[in-house]
Amino acid sequence: MIGEPAVTHPLEPYREPTPDTAMQPLQTPAQGPVELYAERVPVVWVPDAYGRMVPMPKHLAPPPMPVPEPRDLTPLPLLDPVAQRFLGAGLGGGALAAGAGYGVSEVVNAAAGFGSGAAMWIALAVLAWRLPGRVANDRNGSTVNIRKAVIKRSHFHG
User: Residue 132: CB partners within 8 Å, gap ≥ 6?
Assistant: First the structure.
């Protein structure tokens, strides 16, 4: 083909010029207007959709991927420390409530037992103390007071 450049793309492999194109000058970007090095746009090579590296102006290139921070690979505890504190507080609070409830129930039971049992025994003891000794010893319940009085009188008959 006449007029075909020897190299059309920097990624294409080099082809030997054919006799038709051997006498024609190569078409390169340098044939355009003169560019100074300081005026040249920086170019970066980025992968395209097919995995090939293609040149791209730096200002059009996607931003670089941020480097992820290294992960902490120290082994973690089996249970979370905050969860351990919550569990301990729950168990401790439950034990406290159970103990307080048991204590209150014992006080209430003691008061009820005093009202029905101990007060009855105290009342029986007071009644037994107040009863006369004979009734307590299974004798006759009547009380007899014997008063013996001796009166001496002197009579003068004469």
Answer: 141, 143
Nearest CA-CA partner of 1 in 13, 15, 11: 15
Q: What is the DSSP secondary-structure string of 57-76? A: EGGGSPPPPPPPPPPP-SPP
Tell me how far apart the alpha carbons of residues 154 and 50 are, in angstroms, rounded to a whole number.
Answer: 162
Distance CA 22, CA 16 (A): 9
The overall average pLDDT reported for the chain is 77
Domain spans, the chain:
36-60, 83-132
- Residue whose pair of structure tokens reads 């300081």 in the numeric block: 38
pLDDT score of 80: 87
139 or 110, greater pLDDT: 110
Weakest mean pLDDT among 14-23, 36-45, 73-82 = 14-23
Q: Do residues 25 and 7 touch, judged by C-beta distance below 8 A?
A: no
Q: What average pLDDT does the segment 30-50 reach? A: 79
CA atoms within 13 A on the CB side of 56: 13
Q: Which residues contact 115 (CB under 8 A, 6 or more apart)?
A: none
CA of residue 46 relative to chain centroid, distance: 47
Query: Cα-atom radius of gyration of the chain, to the nearest Å?
Result: 61
